[in-house]
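Entry:
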Amino acid sequence: MAEDLQISEGSKVEKYQSLLPQIKALLEGESDLIANLANVCGALREQFNWLWIGFYLVKNDELVLGPFQGPVACTRIRKGKGVCGASWIAGKTLIVADVEKFPGHIACSSLSKSEIVIPLIKNNIVLGVFDIDSISLNDFDEIDQLYLEKIVALINL
């Protein structure tokens, strides 16, 4: 399927609507979590070309770097630290228009200007977070939240 990924040139909504069934097809029939997380990152990077797209998984009360696309990243994030840690504690998606204005932001890359973090929740427990960074200010909105939460819901945790 990966070689058949169709990249859309339309609006943001059209891009997500085109990509969503393709990601679903990538995940169907594959039971390995790491493989699926990697393919989600790759598909979104191909479509949107954001600076950084990746997963952090909860291990021993820390977020530990998982599959990602983009420059090297912070390996471990403590609970409550930065946008990822805040999303973990809150158990909800956080959209940050300007990361420099977020108290305690962790600057893994100085190129990052805005961020969205979606928690990975199963049985009311946060198992990790899906983190996306952009080089543009205010790059994420409710449309991104809606579709990225739909993509996260496709992942069999």
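The chain has a mean pLDDT of 94.
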